Amino acid sequence: MSDYGFKTTLSTTFDVALPQVLAALKAEGFGVLSDIDVAGAMKEKLDINMPPYRILGACNPPLAHRALQAEPDIGLLLPCNVIVRQDADGQVTVGFLDPQLMVGLTGNSKIREVADDAAVRLHRVCDSLAKPTIP
Predict the structure, then answer these.
(1) Any idea what DSSP says for residue 13?
(2) Which of 66, 68, 90, 135 has the fewest CB atoms within 10 Å distance of its CB?
C-alpha cells in the first residue's frame, strides 16, 4: 500500500468480502462506528458510477478509551479506518490505516502502547482475510 497502511487482496466479490471483513474485525474486538458508502455518495452527489468502495470506521472500545485517557485530542485520529473496495480486475482490496501513525503525530509514548496493540489486532484481521477459506 504505502507508508500509511497495509492491505490484502481477496479473490471474491465485494458482497461476499464485506461481511467477512466485518466478522474478522469483530473477532478482534472492533465494532464499526461509521460506514461510508463512497460509491453511493459519488453516484448521489456527482452522478458518477464507480465500483463499490466503503470506508469503515473500526473501533475497539478498550483501546479507544486508553488512547483518550493518554491523549484527549486523539479523537481527531480515531477510529481506525478500513477500506473495502472492488478493484477493476474484480478482486477486492481491504486496506487498513496503520495505527502507528498516531504515535508519530502525537509523540506520546502512552499512545505507542495503544497503537502497538491496535496494529497487532488489525494485522491479525488482515492475515485472517488473506487465508483461503474451506467451503
Answers:
(1) -
(2) 135
pTM over 0.90: yes
60 φ, ψ (degrees, to nearest 5): -105, 105
| DSSP designation for 133 | P
The helix (run of H) or strand (run of E) holding residue 114 is helix 109-130
- Report pLDDT digits (tens) over 56-91: 999 999 999 999 999 999 999 999 999 999 999 999
Which of the four CATH numbers 3.30.310.70, 1.10.10.10, 3.30.310.40, 3.30.950.10 does domain 5-130 have? 3.30.310.70
Question: For the segment 42-57, what is each residue's pLDDT rounded down to a tens digit?
Answer: 999 999 999 999 999 9
